[in-house]
Amino acid sequence: MTEIARLAWRNLWRNTRRTLLTLSAIAFGTFLAVLFTAMQDRSFADTIDLAARLNGGHVLLEHPEYLDMPTLTRTVDHADALRELAAADPKVVRTVERITGQMMVQTATHQSGAAFVAFDPTDEDDTTLSFLEGVTGTLTDRKGIVLGERLAKNLQVGLGDKVVYTLLDRQGQIVSGMGRVSGMLRTGASSVDGGLVLVPIDDMRQVLGYGPDEATFVGVFVGDPRQSAGVSRRLTTGLPGGVRSLTWDEATPDLSGFIAMKVGGARFMELVILVLVAAGIFNTLFMSVMERSREFGILAAIGCSRARIFAMVMWESLWLGLVGLVAAAAVTAGPYAYLVRHGIDLSSKMGPEALEVAGIGFSPILRVGIFPENAAIIAGFAMGATLVAGLWPAWRASRVEPVEAIHLV
């Protein structure tokens, strides 16, 4: 077998130009597949992480009916105990508790509806609440609130001005609170900048009449979004009655559907690329076999078995795949490193407003970052396509009739 492999390597370079063209096709096809997948992996991983930081975590512990009817009457008690339960899981890195809902924000002359997020400003930062990245000002004052920049403009208020907010409590009664604008929020997403208020959670609990550890949900953050389902399953077994566990895709089905659709499209494009690469490899090997029919006939006439001839052509296919992957790695390394570090700035193409899906904004900086298992899958498919493309030429070579082939000119 070693001799066959060495002979196949020499045969591969008998037509250097054709071999180099085939290797270029393998390298370029793999390069495109890796970049497509890396852009997809990084973009969607960042989007999922952003969705978690916007919506409350990769896993949410909430009232069983809250997802279908998100009202302030459907809460979870003993949020501190739920956080301790979640923190005991080795994959969990952070836990938070929040209250979310709808309110009416008013000044003496203007009013506007808005969503609110009540959180503990001493317990959270921009790694758990993405909105804090776009806040100018502070939220340290117990009575301080943060308004979306466009919402503040609509209300004609600035830093230091007072606003009144009203909402319905758990009994359906209208309650109100007052706060001083201590910060402005700017994300680039119109739905957020024009309709979001950040409020200290203790202040909101007092307004709503909640208990000291009562919340709408407990958010759980994991290191890798792909671990969310496993964490959710483990937490479900220890949850008390009246609390259920949801993963990010269950909490945001629109975003999950969008990502699934884009992933499916990318997989189809990768399949098309691999088919084209396999077609190029097949053409190279088939032409090589046809040109060497007389040679194969002589080998068969002097006692070389069909299995050895078949193995020799398959080794040529294997060498093409291996060298092609090495060439692909060399071609991909530079652009990949650049895109990891700098990315492609699409802000000028996207305009001032961020691209939103289900209220989640996509970053205008396109970077790459492929999951190791996806890189292995691409390499495996490229190698498999190369070997499959060599099956028919190898079979054809092994079936050459010595007498007929030797008389070929």
Describe this structure as you would to a colleague.
- With 409 residues, the chain is an alpha+beta fold.
- It folds into two domains: 2-50 and 256-406, no CATH class; 59-222, no CATH class.
- The chain contains 15 helices and 14 strands.
- It has a six-stranded mixed beta barrel. The chain has a two-stranded antiparallel ribbon with strand order 11-14.
- Strand 6 and strand 7 (174-185) form a beta hairpin.
- Helix 11 (306-341) runs antiparallel to helix 14.
- The model has no long low-confidence stretch (mean pLDDT 81).
The helix count comes to 15
Q: Looking at the structure, what is the overall shape? A: elongated
Residue fraction in strands: 15-25%
Secondary structure tally: strands = 14
Strand order of the largest sheet: 2-3-8-5-7-6
Helix content: 40-55%
Number of domains: 2
Q: For this entry, what is the oligomeric state of its chains? A: single chain
How far apart are the first and last residues' alpha carbons, in Å? 30 Å
Biggest pleated sheet = 6 strands, mixed, barrel
Order of helices and strands: HHEHEEEEHEEHEHEHEHHHHEHEEEHHH
Show unreliable segments: none
Mean pLDDT: 81
Q: Whole-number radius of gyration? A: 31 Å
Please state the structural category: alpha+beta
Give a concise summary.
The protein is of the alpha+beta class.
Keywords:
2 domains; elongated; two-stranded antiparallel sheet; 409 residues
